[in-house]
Amino acid sequence: MEGRLNPWLQIWIQPREVINQQLERENREKYFILMVMVYGTLSVFTGYEQNDMDVNIGRIILISIVAGVLLGPLIFYFTSWLTAVVGRWIGGRGEPGDLRVATVRGAYIPGLAIIAVNLIQLAVEGKIYFVSSYAQFEAMQLGLIEGTSEYPLISILTYIAVVWTFVINVNAVGAAHGFSAWKALLLVVIIGFIIAIPLVLVTMLLVSFGLI
């Protein structure tokens, strides 16, 4: 009988096996809401970007907590439901609960690697981490700063973390639906179009009315 795999460690190298085991667990979604809120807060915090040099860390932390706690669970349940529904269009068998397991175990936990690299970058750069590249370039042109914040090693680590997290996520979704990682990749592309098309249409409509 296959031994119990550690979902925090072995998800990195055995994503399908870990997800298959987690799907069979009783009370498999225990602590999920808390994990989603924490992950959402950290994601918003490390992904925050502004177009001016006046950085208020307290305000960024507050925005991150509110967004992570309120929007995190909503996005989590919606995307899990959508991935389950669209997956069944192409032969999958996963239910929303199965995709919630795949999302937390196969996307959020590996995603902590990206957050960790971003936090290292924040520790190195300081407040300028939250300033967009465009704003940094303008400030450099005005002589307010000596140069933009670019660290090749951190960029490489971020790239590796993003790519590997995506690979794990695709395999996790495939395991939850009972099909291959390639089919799961197709599913991700379809969902991308489903989400992107309405956003593009709304943007075009707002532009046509001169609202943006």
Automatic annotation (TrEMBL):
TM helices/strands, residue ranges: 31-48, 60-86, 107-131, 151-172, 184-211
Segments forming domain Yip1: 10-201
Entry-linked Pfam families: Yip1
Membrane topology: Multi-pass membrane protein
Keyword Chloroplast: no
InterPro entries: Yip1_dom
Keywords: Membrane, Transmembrane, Transmembrane helix
Cellular localisation: Membrane
Name the record gives this protein: YIP1 family protein
Organism: Alkalicoccobacillus plakortidis
